[in-house]
User: Fold this.
Amino acid sequence: QSALTQPASVSGSPGQSIAISCTGTNTDIGGYNYVSWYQRHPGKSPKRIISEVTNRPSGVSDRFSISKSGNTASLTITGLRPEDEAEYFCVSYSSDDTWLFGGGTKLTVL
Amino acid sequence: QVQLVQSGAEVKQPGASVRISCKTSGYTLTRYHMHWIRHVPGQGPEWMGIINSGGGGSRYAQRFQGRLTLIRDTSTSTDYLELSGLKSEDTAVYYCAKDFSWGFDYWGQGTPVTVSS
Assistant:
C-alpha cells in the first residue's frame, strides 16, 4: 500500500479534461510545497511533467497543471490527446526526510 | 544531454546480494544528489534512498536500513546500489533518478531484478 493515495484509474475522451488526485497528510503534501508528478508510458522510464517548485520542464505542454488543497494535490490535464494515455504518479517530500509515492493512476483516453 | 544508463537485468537467489550501476553523463555528478527508487509490479513506486552530491553521505528508507548501500564513484561518474539479503519481495525494477528541486528530473532506464530459487 502506497503512502500517498491516488485513484487506480481515470478515463476521458479526446479533448476533455481530467483530474487525478493525490492525498497525503500534513507531514508531506500538506506540510511542504514539494509535490511533483510523473508520467510513464509502458516500457519507458518515468518522465517529470510538473512540480510545485519548478512547474513544467521545457517541452511539457501547458495542458498539464497542478493544484493543491490541504493534504490533497491534483494534476489536471486539459484537451486530452491519445498520447496522454499513460500511468501518472505523484511524489511528495516528507517530514521524515524521505520521499513518498502515490500508487499510480492509469489514464485511458477513450 | 543528461543520460543515466543502468546495468542489465539480474536474477538472484534468496539471500544473495545485487549490485546495480547507474552511469551518468551530460552533467557534473558531484553537483547533484541521486535517488534510488524501485517499482514492484502491481504496486506504487517506492523511494529507497539518496546519496549526497559529493558522495560523502547517504540516507536510506527505514525498511532498507542495514541491507542497502549507495556508492558514488566520481572517477567514472557512476553511482551504485547494493542490496543484500535478497528476498522474493525484492523482485522489482530498480531506478536511479537525478535529484532536482525536491523531485527527480532524469531517470535511468530501470534494472529488473528477479529473486527466485
